[in-house]
């Protein structure tokens, strides 16, 4: 039996800070609306940044913990807020807003079955003032 010589190389390509990534970071950090990759791409397409680049950079940023993600209606929305917070969602216009949580809430709510709370997934759904 010969050793498997086709094992993948473990080295990852270094994460380069390209101008495209910088533009994507700035776009996500400037907005509060939990945009989809498509929306970010709409903003940046004039700069010649392709949708695949937007998706790739957002995935890397989420993996690195620079941004978080929220799923709504089967779509991934990107969130500049990486701290614990809840969301308010309008069922009509699909708007998503951050809802701050009291600092002691994670510990106050820690269920008996968990030793730590690393993430809270709490969503309030209703209609925003524009859609009521
Ligand atoms: Zn609304
Ligand atoms: Zn959020």
Helix and strand layout, with pairings?
Blueprint: H1 19-30, H2 37-44, H3 51-63, E1 68-72, E2 75-79, E3 85-90, E4 96-100, H4 105-109, E5 123-126
Parallel strand pairs: 3-5
Antiparallel strand pairs: 1-2, 3-4
Helix pairs in contact: 1-3, 2-3
The structure holds zinc ion (2 copies).
What report would you give on this structure?
The chain has helices at 19-30, 37-44, 51-63, 105-109; strands at 68-72, 75-79, 85-90, 96-100, 123-126. The chain is 29% helix and 19% strand. It is an alpha+beta fold and 132 residues long. The strands form two sheets. It has a three-stranded mixed β-sheet with strand order 4-3-5, with no helix packed on it. The chain is globular, with a radius of gyration of 19 Å. The protein folds into two domains: 19-79, Winged helix-like DNA-binding domain superfamily/Winged helix DNA-binding domain (Arc Repressor Mutant, subunit A, Orthogonal Bundle), CATH 1.10.10; 85-126. It binds zinc ion (ZN) (2 copies).
Q: Provide the CATH superfamily of the largest domain.
A: Winged helix-like DNA-binding domain superfamily/Winged helix DNA-binding domain
Taking pLDDT < 50 over at least 5 consecutive residues as the criterion, the unreliable ranges are none
What integer value in Å does the Rg equal?
A: 19 Å
Structural class: alpha+beta
How many structural units, i.e. domains? 2
- What percent of residues are in strands? 15-25%
- Average pLDDT figure: 86
């Amino acid at each position: 039996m010969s050793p498997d010589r086709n094992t993948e190389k473990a080295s990852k390509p270094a994460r380069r800070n390209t101008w495209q990534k910088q533009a994507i970071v700035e776009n996500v950090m400037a907005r509060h609306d939990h945009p989809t990759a498509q929306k970010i791409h709409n903003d940046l397409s004039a700069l010649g940044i392709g949708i695949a680049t937007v998706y790739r950079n957002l995935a890397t940023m989420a993996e690195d913990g620079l941004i978080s993600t929220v799923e709504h209606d089967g779509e991934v929305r990107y969130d500049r807020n990486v701290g614990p917070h809840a969301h308010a969602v309008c069922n009509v216009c699909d708007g998503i807003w951050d809802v701050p949580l009291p600092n002691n809430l994670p510990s106050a709510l820690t269920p008996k079955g968990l030793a730590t709370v690393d993430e809270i997934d709490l969503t309030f759904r209703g209609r925003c003032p524009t859609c009521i």
